[in-house]
TrEMBL record:
Pfam family, one: F-box
Organism of origin: Albula goreensis
SMART domains (alphabetical): FBOX
Domain F-box: 91-137
Protein name per UniProt: F-box domain-containing protein
Listed InterPro entries: F-box-like_dom_sf, F-box_dom
Amino acid sequence: MASLLEDKLFEISGQGPAPTKDFFQLVITKTLVIWRWWKISLRSEYRKTQPGEMKLPHDYYLHDKTLQHQVKVVFGENTLEYSKALCNGNFDYLPRLPDRLLLRILAFLELEEVQQLRPISRKFKKLCDSEEFWEQTVRSRCDTVNKEMECLAKEVGWKKVFFTNKLQLQKQISRRRQKEENTGNTDANVM
């Protein structure tokens, strides 16, 4: 299963906590932990300071308490624990799957379960709110999806179509049909 993962498992970068202005980056690949830093200072003694980089195998990182402390100070406890879990081989496969495959998986879930999955990450929020997800939901749970319904969905969105009751949906389709007919008659009268 690990062969499905990309080489880069995790990457985060940012400025260190105040009063420092230094910039840090943590990259975790399948085999290495890479810690990079850039000294940012107006003081003349630091002007020629070169960026630094440390590359460690996962096992070394798990035993390097000094580097772990730096990661915790710069990026927080959650990032430290997540980085240690990755180095221990505890990969989170689900968010790494392609969107089209995740959409197929979401199709088997109840809407309550999708709602619970939504706040897990930005990727899941974006996917659960996407037009592709709601189109697939409408098509799988409605008896028929005709052309008029598709046109309405393109206009107002598949999510709104899903949550609109059938009577309201029929009214909206009827209004849309009348509007198109009136527009067609107006165009014919102009010619």
